[in-house]
Amino acid sequence: MLFDSHAHLDDKRFDSDREAAIARAAANGVTHIINVGADMASSANSVLLAERHETIYAAVGMHPHDAKDMQEKDYEQLAAWTGHPKVIAIGEIGLDYYYDLSPRDIQKQVFIRQLDLARQTGKPFIIHDRDAHGDIMEIMRREGKGLTGVFHCFSGSLEMARDVIKLGFYVSIAGPVTFANSVKLKEVAREVPLDRLLVETDSPYLTPQPYRGRRNEPAHVRLVAAEVARLRGMETEALAAATTGNVRTLFRLAKE
């Protein structure tokens, strides 16, 4: 039993076979999926997907790429969505200094406002962090007190992962852990405490081996779990059970 803690099934790359991809996930032991918003339109679509599928939950938020477009009414809409029973998190939110599609000062402002929204609504957060480790950690030490959440598709060092955990947050591992050159990520996957570890696909991105180069989908979270289990010297089933339990703990979902 696997839980894909981060996917984007609303992406247009699933328009031709979305229902089939959801069915393939179930056939591969993926019992639940969190569909994560990246802007207002995808957040709305995430809510719709969650309403249509018992096995899908939604997160709503504004990705740093689109922070420059954030308006006051959007914060109000995000807050309103958190009242929906299938909306379980604010995300994905954070900083992206790789593409810099929004000015960095605006990214920070919007990130902090959404962390405050998580505090006001009592929802966990889902963080996007690309090439912004220093600023992310500075903000989290200052603004993240009393909050809970996950650093999705973790790309930092083991030292950073330990700092993230000390702050009370979780680390999620995605497809790159299967790449031969992902030495640093493999170390993180091996050493992070099991009770703070999640697995994800970030579909349609970051497809694991042996399907690298093709569109990713939630069924492939089993490949991520298998590699993390191998690195830790565990059975895949035990790793799947532990990470699924962690998702349910973090996002306050009933245990099955």
From TrEMBL:
Transmembrane annotation, as ranges: none
Residues given in the record as a divalent metal cation 1 binding sites: H6, H8, E92, D202
Keywords: Hydrolase, Metal-binding
Magnesium found in the keyword field: no
Superkingdom classification of source: Bacteria
GO cellular component: cytosol
An MF annotation (GO) of this entry: metal ion binding
Residues engaged in binding a divalent metal cation 2: H128, H152
UniProt key word Transmembrane helix: no
Xref: PANTHER family: D-AMINOACYL-TRNA DEACYLASE
This protein's name: Uncharacterized hydrolase tatd-type
